[in-house]
């Protein structure tokens, strides 16, 4: 393990005014995105769409890294240049999702476990040769009647820790992503409670596996109420509940927290990120690792038509710029109408 390299890469990923583009949708997920705009999900359409994102002029001012899917990191542009090389040449760090998705947990109804540890050491070595410099592993926690259970939380935390240790062994910065799902009718207090329990378990397991905290990042949810709760909360309340929770459980050695948007609208995700950064008084960098919240306007502008690439790139650039401002607490809601 090269601690200096890990630490340097982690800090670069949460550099001032920058965040991470999550472009690591699995085949079923990207199909849903494409279905929403009437585009068939094929290797060529997925390649065209991700090329559109990666080659948007000027995004290197706002995007520090890109998380890719297995297919994407192995693809090449029409000129034979690989996608990781295209990103690296612009100063954007290539990354890769390495988990193999979630499956139902045996004997635990409505709970899931993430798979992908088998053969991970070999896959990490391959991804490094392809240009990856960081990795990501996602687990999910669902809030409902009598869930989450401690078994589910601890089992997923164990996989996160084993993944992180193997990534650092390969000198790849791990992004540990325990997502507390927005699905449900729970209030913001319940969300905070589950977030605390989940993160406490994650960092206990990371400690057990001797993970180098200065050479990793945390990707997780903001503390928000369930989408079916009927509760409307202002960004200031989201920021307060989130930061108060994190202060209790996230070690100061972690360089940064890159939030997922987790079902929020692009506008809400940006406004909440802005409120978090306005608060101040914490040691970590607070950044973003958004998928839909960065991509949705671009996807809707593109619609699979090559003639729409320019407009789609403008939409993506705009969303990236607004989140860059939010990253520094400089975003204003009226900017959405400019």
Provide a quick synopsis of the model.
The protein has 338 residues and is α/β, with parallel strands linked by helices. It has twelve helices and ten strands.
Tell me what you see in this structure.
The protein has helices spanning about 5-15, 25-35, 45-55, 70-75, 85-90, 120-130, 150-170, 190-210, 235-250, 265-280, 290-300, 310-325, and strands at about 20-25, 65-70, 95, 100-105, 110-115, 135-140, 175-180, 215-220, 255-260, 285-290. By secondary structure, the protein is an alpha/beta fold. It has a single domain, classed as Aldolase class I (TIM Barrel, Alpha-Beta Barrel), CATH 3.20.20.70. The strands form two sheets. It has an eight-stranded parallel β-sheet. α7 links the parallel β6 and β7. The longest helix is centred in the middle third of the chain and has 21 residues, at about 190-210. The protein is globular, with a radius of gyration of 19 Å. The termini are far apart. The model has no long low-confidence stretch (mean pLDDT about 95).
Secondary-structure element order, N to C: HEHHEHHEEEHEHEHEHEHEHH
Shape: globular
Strand order of the largest sheet: 8-7-6-3-2-1-10-9
CATH class: Alpha Beta
Output the CATH homologous superfamily: Aldolase class I
What's the overall average pLDDT, rounded? 96
Distance between the termini: 47 Å
Report Rg.
Answer: 19 Å
Integer count of domains: 1
* Helical coverage, percent range: 40-55%
Number of strands: 10
Beta-strand content estimate: 5-15%
Biggest beta-sheet profile: 8 strands, parallel
Number of helices: 12
Enter the CATH topology name.
TIM Barrel
Class based on secondary structure composition and strand pairing: alpha/beta
Uncertain regions spanning at least 5 consecutive residues: none
Q: Architecture in CATH?
A: Alpha-Beta Barrel
């Amino acid at each position: 393990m090269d601690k200096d390299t890990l630490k340097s890469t982690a800090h670069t990923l949460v550099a001032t005014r920058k965040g991470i583009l999550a472009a690591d949708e699995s085949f079923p997920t990207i199909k849903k995105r494409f279905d929403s705009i009437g585009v068939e999900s094929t290797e060529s359409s997925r390649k065209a769409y991700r090329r559109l994102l990666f080659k948007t002029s000027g995004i290197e001012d706002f995007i520090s890294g890109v998380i890719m899917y297995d297919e994407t990191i192995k693809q090449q542009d029409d000129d034979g240049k690989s996608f990781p090389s295209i990103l690296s040449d612009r100063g954007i760090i290539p990354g890769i999702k390495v988990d193999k998705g979630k499956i139902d947990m045996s004997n635990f109804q409505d709970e899931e476990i993430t798979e992908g540890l088998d053969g991970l050491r070999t896959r990490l070595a391959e991804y490094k040769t392809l240009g990856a410099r960081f990795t990501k592993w996602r687990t999910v926690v669902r809030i409902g009647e009598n869930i989450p259970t401690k078994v589910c939380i601890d089992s997923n935390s164990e996989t996160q820790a084993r993944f992180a240790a193997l990534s650092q062994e390969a000198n790849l910065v791990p992004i540990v992503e325990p997502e507390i799902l927005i699905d449900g009718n729970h209030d913001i207090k319940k969300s905070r409670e589950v977030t605390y329990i989940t993160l406490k378990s994650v960092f206990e397991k990371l400690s057990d596996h001797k993970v180098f905290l200065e050479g990793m990042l945390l990707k997780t949810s903001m503390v928000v109420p369930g989408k079916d709760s009927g509760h409307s909360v202002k960004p200031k309340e989201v920021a307060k509940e989130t930061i108060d929770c994190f202060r209790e459980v996230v070690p100061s050695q972690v360089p940064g927290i890159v939030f997922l948007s987790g079902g929020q609208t692009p506008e809400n995700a940006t406004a909440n990120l802005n409120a978090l950064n306005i608060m101040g008084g914490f040691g970590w960098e607070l950044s973003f690792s958004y998928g839909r919240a960065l991509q949705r306007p671009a996807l809707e502008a593109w619609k699979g038509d090559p003639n729409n690439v320019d407009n789609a790139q403008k939409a993506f650039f705009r969303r990236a710029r607004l989140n860059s401002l939010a990253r520094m607490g400089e975003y204003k809601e009226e900017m959405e109408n400019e």
